[in-house]
Amino acid sequence: MLKILIPTLMLIPTAWFAPPKWLWPLTLMGSLLIAVTSFSWFKSTSEVGWTTLNSYMATDPLSTPLLALTCWLLPLMILASQHHTHNEPLNRQRTYLTLLISLQFFLILAFSATELIMFYVMFEATLLPTLMIITRWGNQAERLNAGMYFLFYTLASSLPLLVALLILQNTSGTLSLLTLQYMSPMSLTTHADKLWWVGCLLAFLVKMPLYGVHLWLPKAHVEAPIAGSMILAAVLLKLGGFGMMRMMLVLEPLTKEMLYPFIVFALWGIVMAGSICLRQTDLKSLIAYSSVSHMGLVVAGILVQTPWGFAGALILMIAHGLTSSALFCLANTNYERIHSRSILLARGLHMVLPLMATWWFFASMANLALPPLPNLMGELMIITSLIGWSYWTLALTGTGMLITASYSMYMFITTQRGPLPNHLVALDPSHTREHLIMALHLLPLILLILNPQLISGWVN
Amino acid sequence: MADYKEAPLASRPKTLDPNEYFNLSLEYRRAEEERSAIRSNLKLQYQTQLNNPHRKALIEDPALNRWMYARSHTYPHFKTTFKTSLTGLLFGVVPVVVLYYLFKTDRDKKEVDIKAGKYDRRFSLTS
């Protein structure tokens, strides 16, 4: 664990002491080396499930894929941010890199935490660098509003979580996941216990986001710069899912009765968020609502508490992380050329940038869950476990998949096919950097077709 | 021109409207000329920008900007009318209530069947 943590921490002095010409290559190489080293966590031979165990942190088949995703994303974020920061003064570039690296550090600590309070503290700690990235480096005036919504939605919903965790510590005497997993189910019968159940999960439901409380997500994703959008879509949403999966351990007998409203919102959210996508004019907003839709499916998969539901949720989280981040990078390539996020302004691009059209094709097909990509495998496992829960869910999840396919195709056809606008005259050709980012996003996704056991949790 | 019939879903084009040629008042003609002048001015501005050899940026269309602003800032301009309240109820409240009722009754029926021993889930281990 330390062989990842200490280099990540040391990337911060690297960002501050690197000579100006070597700033971005050095941090990029450092983060790539860390990303490759993080793959060593996948080799887990222990029988108890927890590997690289020390007093505060451990990895297990649930957190390892998410940790690898986090470490993999930092070099991609650094690559993607290179262009839009190159006009800024040097110290501001160093600050930006420091924020990204500290976000990575907090995320590694959050995913590998064994104490629930440490997870909570790191969960809150990730809010600050993200807030700074959104409000300082966003491009429109609405970024302040977006930052406010992001901060206060997540903060207000996680304060009940703090109280709930303290109550749990008082009643069960421990908050360590290593011992909580062997705790016998508590007798949760009173109304206060029901409120405690909601308090435990509310923070994660808002973070996921659940459909009713998703209002912060389109704002934050649209106003954030590219690295902010990438880390938000790929990892921060999954913090919510990961937290839910960990908390389900202790919420045992009450979940069967309490989950109905939340699963209804999650399933209806798939259909509603997907329908809103069909009406979006802003490309990043479309991808943001598509994230809400996919995460609705993940929430439903986690709430039914079956092995397939959990495995499907984890697979979909990883696959969606890579896909959504890839789509945001593609939207950013559009934005860097025409400085507008409108879908209508950059149409017919496959005639002008055919190689980028290939990446658009792959990312859109991944988004609509094309077999044999892991997006489909995760969705199928969740839908199957939901059918086992109740046959009627098929109406919503089926409609949801149909709408997902239609808005992904809509996005692809509008940006790539069709007539090129007459007044587009000076588009940069696709940079090698952009091709590299897209390849590094989609190559793991394609390789995961061949070895999905890595990301399916404990099901083996 | 007397034989022209409108298609079911298309409106009659302006140049085939008989009122365009007969029974025209002076105010209508003047208004039509003003509108035509505005349109020509806009087309002139667009063509100037389009054919400018030193232009590298996109041509800014204020109508598009207004439309995108309107589409993305719907919440501050939301008005509670009968139709919007009905839409909110129909898409926000009714589905939640109906789905809750649907799932609860379905699951309760399943629970009764399981307790009576009539539900076959011999092979349902992991899903």
Automatic annotation (TrEMBL), chain A:
Compartment(s) where it occurs, according to its Swiss-Prot or TrEMBL record: Mitochondrion membrane
Major localization class: mitochondrion
Membrane topology (UniProt): Multi-pass membrane protein
A GO MF label: ubiquinone binding
Any one GO biological process: electron transport coupled proton transport
EC number: 7.1.1.2
Start and end residues of each NADH:quinone oxidoreductase/Mrp antiporter transmembrane domain: 113-403
Pfam families: Oxidored_q5_N (PF01059), Proton_antipo_M (PF00361)
InterPro entries reported in the protein's UniProt record: NADH4_N, NADH_Q_OxRdtase_chainM/4, NADH_UbQ_OxRdtase, ND/Mrp_TM
Substrates-to-products reaction catalysed: a ubiquinone + NADH + 5 H(+)(in) = a ubiquinol + NAD(+) + 4 H(+)(out)
Residues spanning the signal sequence: none
Entry's family note: Belongs to the complex I subunit 4 family.
Role of this protein: Core subunit of the mitochondrial membrane respiratory chain NADH dehydrogenase (Complex I) which catalyzes electron transfer from NADH through the respiratory chain, using ubiquinone as an electron acceptor. Essential for the catalytic activity and assembly of complex I.
The name this protein goes by in its record: NADH-ubiquinone oxidoreductase chain 4
Native source organism of the sequence: Champsocephalus gunnari (Mackerel icefish)
Taxonomic lineage: Eukaryota, Metazoa, Chordata, Craniata, Vertebrata
UniProtKB/TrEMBL annotation, chain B:
Keyword Mitochondrion: yes
Residue intervals passing through the bilayer: 85-103
Protein name: NADH dehydrogenase [ubiquinone] 1 beta subcomplex subunit 4
Family: Belongs to the complex I NDUFB4 subunit family.
Keywords: Electron transport, Membrane, Mitochondrion, Mitochondrion inner membrane, Respiratory chain, Transmembrane, Transmembrane helix, Transport
One GO CC term on file: mitochondrial inner membrane
Origin species: Champsocephalus gunnari
Main localization category: mitochondrion
Intracellular or extracellular location(s): Mitochondrion inner membrane
Membrane topology: Single-pass membrane protein
Function description: Accessory subunit of the mitochondrial membrane respiratory chain NADH dehydrogenase (Complex I), that is believed not to be involved in catalysis. Complex I functions in the transfer of electrons from NADH to the respiratory chain. The immediate electron acceptor for the enzyme is believed to be ubiquinone.
